[in-house]
């Protein structure tokens, strides 16, 4: 562990805000992807602990999400982008009357996905489609998920609202459901806090600017922190979008990824993405140039 990583771990253990540390270090009001990844990885296991400490709120929160998703009709695939430790996804799936064939979850943190797999299994959910990925370069094909939803995962990416919406919309084939900070519906105190932490703003306005069809927009029924109120935005995808089979795609080129014994391989770009501890590592920075991967080497 280098000196900087050691310092960050010490800050986290002391209760300091790691993302704020990076904002100050970079003299920026925005959270970098690297800061978000480090912060979330250090938080691994805390979401399961929060769930255990307050199961009543989780039951109400995930029950309300399940009700919204069921109101959108039948669906074969669901993705939670920013799945954390699957304490939302697994409990939502558990409450759905008709289970989707594929329940997927991505997170930027490998450690959180490790906990997510364990939690999903404890709820009877297959961990097969839990993987690491970047919210802005999702390693899935266009229109490959019926319903994509987020739960405070776009939150720390203030300034990148349009990028996030475009990418989430690209992957969905029917609906995009956002449960994110409702800056415009918040109190002045809450707005000041959101600004300080670099949270997203104007998601509804950004969706309208992009020409997306907003089916519903309101404060969500269950909010755990009044200084970070959850807003609900349901976006219906254009009727011309055709659902495709759920499949991994290279986050750099968009090309198909084929599963090998220890990696996912992109033949057209000669890139391989490792599988570590059973978890597909599909962040762009995980790519390894492997031009000899398919070569039959003889010496």
Cα-atom radius of gyration? 19 Å
In whole angstroms, how far apart are the ends?
39 Å
Individual helix count: 10
Q: Strand percentage, roughly?
A: 15-25%
Q: Which stretches of 5+ consecutive residues score pLDDT under 50? A: none
Q: Strand order of the main beta sheet, please? A: 3-2-1-4-5-7-6
Question: What descriptors fit this protein?
Answer:
alpha/beta; Rossmann fold; N-terminal domain of TfIIb; 7-stranded mixed β-sheet; 5-stranded antiparallel β-sheet; 34% helix
Q: Can you walk me through this structure?
A:
- 34% of the residues lie in helices and 20% in strands.
- It contains ten helices and twelve strands.
- Strands 3-2-1-4-5-7-6 form a seven-stranded mixed sheet, with helices on both faces. Strands 8, 9, 10, 11 and 12 form a five-stranded antiparallel sheet that branches.
- Helix 5 packs across helix 6.
- The model has no long low-confidence stretch (mean pLDDT 91).
